[in-house]
Predict the structure.
Amino acid sequence: VQLQAYGGGLVQAGGSLRLSCAASERTYSRLNMGWFRQAPGKEREFVAVISRSGSTTYYADSVKGRFTISRENAKNTVYLQMNSLKPEDTAVYYCAADRGSGLRVVLKEYEYWGQGTEVTVSS
């Protein structure tokens, strides 16, 4: 499975960005999809995950109420809508895919990773 994340950029605090991640897998609908991020000098951390059907989502407390994960299985794409951005949201954002059952929040449980897209939020 190849994942291609894009949509990052520079935005002012309070602004919005939408990240996208396209998957090469024709059985994309069988994958749980997640977003992680890694800020400079910090470990990669969980942001959000969405189930195969899109019916179930789960978020890190730090982004709950501001970020929304969604997917379009017909386009093999998962999205991360980020609103009310804060400087502390600055990071490289990675999408990841997992074939297992249940929603995963642990980095090492994901099988496939995209290359990352950089988000910078200025104050």
Q: What stands out?
A: The first strand starts at residue 3 and ends at 6. Residues 53 and 70 are 10 Å apart (CA to CA). The radius of gyration is 13 Å.
